[in-house]
Amino acid sequence: MAGTGIFTEILDGEVYKYYSDGEWKTSSSGKSVAIVNPTTRKTQYKVQACTQEEVNKVMEMAKSAQKSWAKTPLWKRAELLHKAAAILKENKAPIAESLVKEIAKPAKDSVTEVVRSGDLISYCAEEGVRILGEGKFLLSDSFPGNERTKYCLTSKIPLGVVLAIPPFNYPVNLAVSKIAPALIAGNSLVLKPPTQGAVSCLHMVHCFHLAGFPKGLISCITGKGSEIGDFLTMHPAVNCISFTGGDTGISISKKAGMIPLQMELGGKDACIVLEDADLDLVASNIIKGGFSYSGQRCTAVKVVLVMESVADELVEKVKAKVAKLTVGPPEENCDITAVVSESSANFIEGLVMDAKEKGATFCQEYKRDGNLIWPLLLDNVRPDMRIAWEEPFGPVLPVLRINSVEEGINHCNASNFGLQGCVFTKDINKAMLISDAMETGTVQINSAPARGPDHFPFQGLKDSGIGSQGVTNSINLMTKVKTTVINLPTPSYSMG
Ligand code: G3H
Predict the structure, then answer these.
(1) CB neighbours of 281 closer than 8 A, spacing ≥ 6?
(2) Neighbour-count burial for 424-438, b at 16+ CB within 10 Å, e otherwise
(3) DSSP class per residue in 213-271
(4) CB 229 within 8 A of CB 152
(5) Catalytic residues (predicted)?
(6) How far apart are the CA of 451 and the centre of ligand 1, in A?
(7) For 325-356, what is each residue's pLDDT tens digit?
(8) Integer Cα distance of 219 and 183 in angstroms
């Protein structure tokens, strides 16, 4: 159970502690932040409302701990990461339980998130040992006008303090996808979890604590974004921010100083369906892509652009599958569970009502109970409807019928977002041309969009983000290149 067994020390009465200087602490604010269970809509957990002074303290510790961590051999850093991964996986049950309660993720998917996170940490440790263990050696005489008098040695060095801000929908996985690359590269790490997802994050951080990382190297600050959000992101000690979430990321990037940013800010992933597509395959992928975790994934299929000639058949196939989706509590592994908050449910309802007023065809009756919204496929959506452009982050999927491939590509490219997209066709040549024409960070051919496997590059164009994720790219983003040049008095050619 969450907060029990090895996790007892992270709880103070009924409020979870924050993690600073290698210890679990209660905030001097005397205040807490409530975490509302999306299913019951009642307070499930409470976390500390940390103060700005506590943020300052954590930053000070992070700066000094990083100096010695950077001098810790790479193999030792990797060893500790492997240990944390093992502890995390051993304790998947209580962590998954808090995911179920805090963010209403179905129980099985919650376990998958924790296991996937352990695997990511281990992969990152191995990849770090490989890519950080080698540098480059350049010779000056390849550039015009130079003799071989300069030997240039390059290696990758840490940035310093990395601030990680994961979102509510993958609080554990998208936290470790920032923590592990930062640590293997020799950085220290300050984590600011989302409010919903904070308790899962605190459990995950305790696994790193038990693995034996040095004091102050990892910290986890909880509290209200309105009180400590800007203070954290604009803190002078921060040398890199890795953020996943909504358009708050745009304001963070405007306010952040001259530091590397890794931002993933959502998408409106299009699914383009051509006339020759395998419609059964498309229908299964639309269900998986559009409705897993109730559509609350940045990589969810968020608009289907289908050729008119096959639209009726596809819509019928998807409708039949939607009817089979189970709706209810995450504890019972229902496919569709409550969305994260009442405000999110209200936003989704606003998009649905707009589509209704403007004449979309409802393939199911619209139904809502509290934060629970039944899966809904909207056919004959037109570009004047908000749902054609905005991301509901819920189980509502619009279908736009198109008369040419160009129309589909134009719709996809007119979006402010550019995260992923997918195209279904049996013609690989056409698929490649469409992929090249789509202004998105990734295009999946004959499958729904997805970030994983976690070592693949993951990036968005336009308002979908800055920088690229995936294990290797994250390690590289959290390092800088350092060079040392050996200058010789006379040119030297080995074996010359
Ligand atoms: O919500 C954003 C995540 O990066 C999506 O990850 O494709 O594994 O669901 P996923």
Answers:
(1) 424, 446
(2) bbeeeeebeebbebb
(3) PPTTTEEE--S-IIIIIHHHHT-TT--EEEEESSTHHHHHHHHS-SS-EEEE----EEE
(4) no
(5) 264
(6) 5
(7) 999 999 999 999 999 999 999 999 999 999 99
(8) 12
Q: What is the DSSP letter of 169?
A: S
Catalytic residue among 97, 102, 127, 264: 264
The burial of 131, by beta-carbon neighbours within 10 Å (0-12 exposed, 13-18 middle, 19 or more buried), is given as middle
Q: Peptide bond before 453: cis, by omega within 30 degrees of 0? A: yes
Q: What's the CA gap between 261 and 408, in Å, rounded? A: 32
Residue tagged 């100083």 (tokens):
257
Residue whose Cα lies nearest atom 2 of ligand 1: it is 298
Residue by residue, DSSP assigns 428-494 as: HHHHHHHHHHS-SSEEEESS-----STTS-EE-EETTEESEESHHHHHHHTEEEEEEEEEPSS---T
Q: For the chain, what is the total number of helices (H) and then of strands (E)?
A: 14, 28
402-438 pLDDT tens trace = 999 999 999 999 999 999 999 999 999 999 999 999 9
- Tens-digit pLDDT profile for residues 5-54: 999 999 999 999 999 999 999 999 999 999 999 999 999 999 999 999 99
Residues with beta carbon inside 6 Å of ligand 1? 169-170, 297-299, 450-452
The angle, 0 to 180 degrees and rounded to 10, between the axes of the packed helices 173-184 and 74-90 is 160
Closest by CA position to 110, among listed 57, 55, 173: 173
Report CA-CA distances (Å) from 241 to 188, 198, 252, 478, 484: 12, 18, 9, 9, 27
Contact present, 20 and 61 (Cβ < 8 Å): yes
Residue nearest to atom 8 of ligand 1 (CA): 451
- The answer to whether the beta carbons of residues 270 and 409 sit under 8 Å apart is no
Distance 103 CA to ligand 1 centre (A): 15
Report which of 325, 319, 323 is spatially closest to residue 337, judged by C-alpha positions.
Answer: 325
In the chain, the amino acid numbered 373 is: I
308 has catalytic annotation: no
Give the C-alpha separation, 25 to 18, whole Å.
5
Distances (CA, A) of 320 to 11, 284, 480: 46, 11, 52
